[in-house]
């Protein structure tokens, strides 16, 4: 539309120059203004995310199977149907935006990210992380303007989740090494969702949440003074990071976490209403 207007405007300008006494300087000023408007609108249109076609249930199932989502694979058929529905609902409420050269958002990418959120909350009433509307995906690690360093992922209070796809894929490729960027960042999102909207939802049992908070603070202090087989837990700088790292271990190394820190395991099992150690045993 704006391109047509630009053509007409230039035609009028040429006619005015031919039949009137418009100076070359005046024409140059008008041309520069027109170029500025054109650059602004074309840039805004180019960067504006285009609405994506909604995925179907069949596409969701196909992507979950083709990407080898380990958690989904061990579910019963009725549980898989619920899982698929939750993934579909999660995707429908988020805007997935590609960042960086060569990054393209596919159904498989959206499904894998959504699957992490659903896995984390599968034992709870359906949760959509409503505060977080936008998910940015970079092909590799990116420079965070908030933390002033390169990151593989982050969650901020503005309602944005940011992920490095290379690190995300590395985390999901091995479901037993205790490293999973998707679960880690969704744990941060869950923690923030609860902190930003306390009492607004009933997805976390308040008794179990209080128990977890007290225990995790005590365990974090103890682990900083004593040795643990989980070095990342010892190095966690705050309770938010402690929770996110514990979630990774809870799902990927449940038997070892339960053996080394039974109280931590049980508190998180109660909070999330899941018991992966029993499924792995």
Number of domains: 2
- Could you name the CATH topology of the largest domain? Cyclin A, domain 1
**Biggest sheet character:** 4 strands, mixed
Secondary structure: number of strands:
6
Strand content: 5-15%
Report the CATH C-level class of the largest domain: Mainly Alpha
Descriptive keywords:
alpha/beta; Cyclin A, domain 1; two-stranded antiparallel sheet; 14 helices; 281 residues; 2 domains
Descriptive overview:
This protein is an alpha/beta fold and 281 residues long. The chain folds into 2 domains: 53-175, Cyclin A, domain 1; 205-281, no CATH class. The protein has 14 helices and 6 strands. It has helices at 2-19, 24-47, 57-66, 70-73, 77-92, 107-121, 165-173, 181-196, 206-225, 231-235, 239-252, 254-260, 262-272, 276-280; strands at 95-98, 134-138, 142-144, 149-151, 153-156, 160-164. The strands form 2 sheets. It has a 4-stranded mixed beta sheet with strand order 1-2-6-5. A two-stranded antiparallel ribbon has the order 3-4. Helix 1 (2-19) packs antiparallel against helix 2 (24-47), helix 6 packs across helix 8 and helix 12 crosses helix 13.
Quick overview of this protein structure:
The protein has 281 residues and is of the alpha/beta class.
Q: Which helices and strands, and how do they pair?
A:
Layout: H1 2-19, H2 24-47, H3 57-66, H4 70-73, H5 77-92, E1 95-98, H6 107-121, E2 134-138, E3 142-144, E4 149-151, E5 153-156, E6 160-164, H7 165-173, H8 181-196, H9 206-225, H10 231-235, H11 239-252, H12 254-260, H13 262-272, H14 276-280
Parallel strand pairs: 1-2, 2-6
Antiparallel strand pairs: 3-4, 5-6
């Amino acid at each position: 539309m704006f391109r047509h207007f630009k053509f007409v405007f230039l035609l009028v300008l040429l006619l005015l120059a031919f039949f009137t006494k418009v100076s070359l300087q005046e024409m140059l000023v008008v041309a520069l203004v027109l170029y500025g408007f054109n650059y602004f609108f074309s840039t805004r249109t180019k960067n504006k995310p285009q609405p994506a076609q909604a995925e179907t249930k069949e596409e969701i199932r196909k992507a979950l199977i083709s990407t080898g989502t380990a958690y989904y694979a061990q579910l019963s058929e009725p549980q898989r149907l619920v899982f698929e529905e939750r993934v579909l609902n999660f995707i429908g409420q988020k805007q997935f935006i590609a960042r960086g050269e060569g990054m393209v958002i596919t159904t498989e990418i959206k499904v894998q990210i959504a699957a992490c959120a659903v896995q984390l909350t599968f034992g709870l009433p359906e949760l959509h992380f409503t505060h977080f509307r936008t998910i940015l995906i970079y092909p590799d690690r990116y420079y965070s303007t908030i933390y002033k360093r390169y990151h593989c992922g982050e969650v901020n209070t503005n309602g944005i989740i940011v992920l490095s796809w290379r690190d995300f894929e590395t985390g999901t490729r091995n479901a037993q090494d205790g490293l999973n960027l998707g679960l880690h960042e969704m744990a941060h999102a869950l923690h923030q969702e609860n902190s930003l909207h306390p009492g607004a939802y009933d997805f976390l049992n308040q008794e179990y949440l209080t128990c977890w908070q007290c225990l995790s603070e005590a365990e974090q202090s103890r682990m900083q003074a004593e040795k643990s087989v989980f070095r990342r837990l010892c190095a966690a700088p705050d309770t938010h990071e402690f929770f996110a790292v514990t979630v990774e271990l809870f799902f990927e190394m449940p038997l070892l976490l339960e053996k080394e820190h039974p109280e931590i395991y049980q508190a998180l099992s109660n909070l999330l209403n899941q018991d992966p150690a029993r499924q792995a045993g």
